[in-house]
């Protein structure tokens, strides 16, 4: 495998960056712009691939060697991944479960190297420099430059902070800290009055000069926002006394409240456990764990002590994350964020109690709606259904909602997504749609990747019943195999679930609106299973169909399309060329304008209502009507 600092000659297949749009999903385009990524490529396995130059000396190879030394010394894999993040900012080997625990407990800011860690390292270096200056021999003092003890401590402290920040990857929080330390020491040594906001302002200008795209990162807003709140608290109180319990509680409360709107806007969640957990996690991680991890670079035995501390504290952190109300998952609209931000001064500034109570009253309707205690306005009426086909590349996931029920077909898991360690869009989509309980989970075909996707869904929401096709020996409850035929009705909408073939066939679902259109979901059906469905006389007629196997004509049995008689075809695929679109239209005997794919365009929403034709919407930051291919910009049906 290539290592940091090496140079290789490779044959690549280059692709444009995928455009993925899902409700509540991660903005891939913004992240790519922030990271200066213009495209992606896959290495083609050929004999000409070779290494040209070995890794030389440099900062990045040094970081990789330190990460390797930690991995070789620390036996606990999770502890080694955490220590690599604290030592050199290498968090790539941390597991998804670790990130979930840190997110639920509000301690993610302590995992990556933060401004607090850099400041602590700088103060330790400056303190050591003062001690060295005071204990140095007179001869050593005469040889030293005549700069004085404090300038000497400032140079050593700032240099140490810069070195640690560079070793950590020089992220935005570390950039801010280094600049603030340098400006603070310059003002102090120059005899100038030191204003915290003036120092923060210089740090802000420096970060923007180094990286104009920094505001596209959540760390920019959270780092500067937290520092501004701390400075505002100091100004109001005339300086917070370190070590005072009350001051610590007030500071934690202020930072948590102030960053809540930012956290909601970026991540759609707020850690409630973090208000308590950080009171203990901040001193333990910052003053015990981080010094041990850094000391391990010189004395590897310190990593063993850090591993013991991790083994002692991690179960407590996990128990806090398992608390039912540890994290509040929401999907706030922009107006909710504005409302929360506008009410912040009522809790951060000394205002009368009646104003704070009024602010709570203004938040009450929003909080009740966010908690699911009030009905959502976007739910379908009785007798109607709303269907969301997620944009999941070559994976597949489809959410069906009636007035009071929700059903999920598959989990968007695919081999490509697993290889890239990509987050599934399903959990974020369920949260954005206000789904906290699934009445039915259907896995059309069982295999290892879908099992991993099902585990994510089962961990995120309550699942009352589940069906799986293809056979799954020893499947966990509530997963049961798809039977021959299973029929039920939710809110006057009829559902029919069946097994496509007698021997471990995939699941096929048909949804029918009484007096309206029907939808057939047979995404994993192949030609053999399609022939078995026709032979069994299954009810397949539907106005809308999800094309099997990403629209492949080879998956269609003779007579299958005629039996379905669809007028609309939905295709879940990573890409669809004009030639393939035309082939799908020809296979299903529909106009090309009635073939709609998620490829490069975003998630699809289908509204099925009695007495009306299907209505299709596409997600592009919000739901909008889908124009047919070739329509001019600004098309509004």
Structure overview:
- This protein has 637 residues and is of the alpha/beta class.
- The chain has three domains: 50 residues, no CATH class; 195 residues, no CATH class; 235 residues, Ribonuclease Z/Hydroxyacylglutathione hydrolase-like (Metallo-beta-lactamase, Chain A, 4-Layer Sandwich), CATH 3.60.15.10.
- The chain is 46% helix and 15% strand.
- The chain is built from 23 helices and 24 strands.
- The protein has a nine-stranded mixed beta sheet, with no helix packed on it.
- α2 packs antiparallel against α3, α11 runs antiparallel to α12 and α12 runs antiparallel to α15.
- The C terminus is likely disordered.
List keywords for this structure.
637 residues, alpha/beta, 15% strand, 9-stranded mixed sheet
Helix and strand arrangement:
Layout: E1 7-9, E2 12-15, H1 28-34, E3 40-43, E4 50-53, H2 59-73, H3 77-88, H4 96-104, H5 108-111, H6 115-135, H7 138-143, H8 149-167, H9 172-189, H10 196-210, H11 218-237, H12 245-267, E5 269-271, H13 274-295, H14 301-321, E6 327-329, H15 334-343, H16 345-348, H17 353-370, E7 385-389, E8 398-401, E9 406-409, H18 415-419, H19 425-432, E10 437-438, E11 440-443, H20 448-460, E12 462-463, E13 466-468, E14 479-481, E15 485-490, E16 493-499, E17 507-513, E18 518-521, H21 527-535, E19 544-546, H22 560-564, E20 568-571, H23 578-588, E21 595-597, E22 604-608, E23 615-619, E24 623-625
Parallel strand pairs: 9-11, 10-12, 11-13, 13-14, 18-19, 19-20, 20-21
Antiparallel strand pairs: 1-4, 2-3, 5-6, 7-8, 7-22, 8-9, 15-16, 16-17, 17-18, 22-23, 23-24
Helix pairs in contact: 2-3, 4-14, 6-8, 6-9, 6-13, 8-9, 9-10, 10-11, 11-12, 12-13, 12-15, 13-14
């Amino acid at each position: 495998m290539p290592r940091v600092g090496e140079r290789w000659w490779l044959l690549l297949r280059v692709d444009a960056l995928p455009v993925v749009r899902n409700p509540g999903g991660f903005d891939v385009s913004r992240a790519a712009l922030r990271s200066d990524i213009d495209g992606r490529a896959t290495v083609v396995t050929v004999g000409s691939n070779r290494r040209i130059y070995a890794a030389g000396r440099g900062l990045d190879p040094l970081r990789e060697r330190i990460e390797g030394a930690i991995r070789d010394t620390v036996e606990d894999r999770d502890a080694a991944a955490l220590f690599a993040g604290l030592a050199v900012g290498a968090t790539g080997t941390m597991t998804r479960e670790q990130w979930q625990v840190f997110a639920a407990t509000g301690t993610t800011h302590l995992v990556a190297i933060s401004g607090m860690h850099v400041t602590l390292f700088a103060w330790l270096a400056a303190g050591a420099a003062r001690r060295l200056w005071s204990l140095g021999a007179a001869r050593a003092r005469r040889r030293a430059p005549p700069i004085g003890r404090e300038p000497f401590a400032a140079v050593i402290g700032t240099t140490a902070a810069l070195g640690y920040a560079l070793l950590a990857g020089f992220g935005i929080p570390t950039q801010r800290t280094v600049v603030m330390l340098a400006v603070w020491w310059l003002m102090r040594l120059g005899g100038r009055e030191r204003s915290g906001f003036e120092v923060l302002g210089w740090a802000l200008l420096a970060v923007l000069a180094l990286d104009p795209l920094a505001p596209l990162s959540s760390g920019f807003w959270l780092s500067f926002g937290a520092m501004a709140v701390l400075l505002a608290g100091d100004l109001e109180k005339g300086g917070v006394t370190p070590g005072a319990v009350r001051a610590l509680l007030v500071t934690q409360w202020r930072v948590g409240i102030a960053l809540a709107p930012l956290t909601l806007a970026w991540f759609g969640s707020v850690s409630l456990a973090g208000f308590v957990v950080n009171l203990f996690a901040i001193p333990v991680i910052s003053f015990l764990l981080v010094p041990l991890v850094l000391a391990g670079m010189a004395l590897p035995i310190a990593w063993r002590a850090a591993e013991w501390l991790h083994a002692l504290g991690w179960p407590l952190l996990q128990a806090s994350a398992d608390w039912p109300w540890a994290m509040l998952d929401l999907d706030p609209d922009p107006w909710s964020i504005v409302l929360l931000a506008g009410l912040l001064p009522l809790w951060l500034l000394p205002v009368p109690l009646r104003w704070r109570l009024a602010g709570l009253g203004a938040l009450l309707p929003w909080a009740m709606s966010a908690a699911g205690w009030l009905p959502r306005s976007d739910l379908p009426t009785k007798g109607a259904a709303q269907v969301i086909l997620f944009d999941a590349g070559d994976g597949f996931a489809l959410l069906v909602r009636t007035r009071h029920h929700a059903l999920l077909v598959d989990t968007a898991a695919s081999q490509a997504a697993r290889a890239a360690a990509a987050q599934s869009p399903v959990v974020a989509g369920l949260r954005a749609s206000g789904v906290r309980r699934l009445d039915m989970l259907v896995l059309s075909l069982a295999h290892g990747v879908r099992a991993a996707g099902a585990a994510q869904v089962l961990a995120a929401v309550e699942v009352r019943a589940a069906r799986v096709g293809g056979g799954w020996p020893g499947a966990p409850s509530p997963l049961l195999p798809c039977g021959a035929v299973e029929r039920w009705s939710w809110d006057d909408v009829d559902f029919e679930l069946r097994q496509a073939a007698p021997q471990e066939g995939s699941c096929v679902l048909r949804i029918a609106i009484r007096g309206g259109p029907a939808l057939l979901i047979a995404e994993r059906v192949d030609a053999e299973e399609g022939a078995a469905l026709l032979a069994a006389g299954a009810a397949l007629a539907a106005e809308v169909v999800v094309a099997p196997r990403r629209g492949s004509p080879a998956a269609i049995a003779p007579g299958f399309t005629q039996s379905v008689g669809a007028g609309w075809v939905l295709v879940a695929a990573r890409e669809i060329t004009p030639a393939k679109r035309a082939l799908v239209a020809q296979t299903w005997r529909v106009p090309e304008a009635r073939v709609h794919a998620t490829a490069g365009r975003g998630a699809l929403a289908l509204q099925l209502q009695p007495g009306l034709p299907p209505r299709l919407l596409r997600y592009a930051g919000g739901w909008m009507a889908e124009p047919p291919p070739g329509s001019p910009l600004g098309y509004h049906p």
